[in-house]
Amino acid sequence: xxxxKAVILAGGLGVRLRPLTYVVPKPMLPLGDxxxxxxIITDLRDQGIRDVVISCSYLARVIxxxxxxxxxxxxxxxxxxxxxxxxxxxQLRPVKDLVEGTFITVYGDVYAKIDYRxxxxxxxxxxxxxxxxxxxxxxAVRFGVVEVDGxxxxxxWREKPEVEYNVNAGIYVxxxxxxxxxxxxxxxxxxxxxxxxxxxxRVYGYEFAGEVYDIGDMTSYxxxxxxxxxxxxxx
Length: 235
Known about the structure:
The chain is an alpha/beta fold and 235 residues long. It has helices spanning 36-46, 60-67, 87-92, 116-125, 189-198, 218-231, and strands at 5-10, 30-31, 34-35, 51-56, 76-81, 103-107, 110-112, 130-140, 144-148, 154-159, 162-174, 203-207, 212-214. It has one domain: Spore Coat Polysaccharide Biosynthesis Protein SpsA, Chain A (Alpha-Beta Complex). The protein has six helices and 13 strands. Strands 5-4-1-6-11-8-12 form a seven-stranded mixed sheet. Strands 2-3 form a two-stranded antiparallel sheet. Strands 7-13 form a two-stranded antiparallel ribbon.
């Protein structure tokens, strides 16, 4: 794991978390007694990863001022800064010259107690170009769901059924070949993955059953803080 670099994407504006993000970038919002970004970095460090690249833009100075070169956390931190938000994949492209071989990428607004070693081993066992961490969600449909055949005859009626599906957790393992698919300027990770899949790249999903704390908007952040606090025993 000491040969694996981690790239953290921390360049979003955090519009849905205003007014909190007027003065604090989204990845620096606290989860418990530490910024979510610090929790991500310390977990990576504790699993043997020492080299971290932070791709940032909005309020980048706040992030760099807090972490510095990372030595106080026992890691080496490099920064890539853009003058404007570039989207999830667009933030990754400037990192191209800083990574060699397999690397981990984590969204700066997502925290999960994941076994990165197992994730990397899974990725390598599949000889994948890209591996996406997946989490299962269950959601109740608000209406009765009716299935019909080709003639319009009703076959089933399920009242407010619960559906289960996989969603992207915002954590990936990539090979450098991913950079061949990222466009200059603003680009999104979903477009990159669709392009890779259409061109036959080896793209895999790694199912994760643990807790994922997502602070993408105010409701999600409040829920993450509540659940994290409960996990700590209400401290």
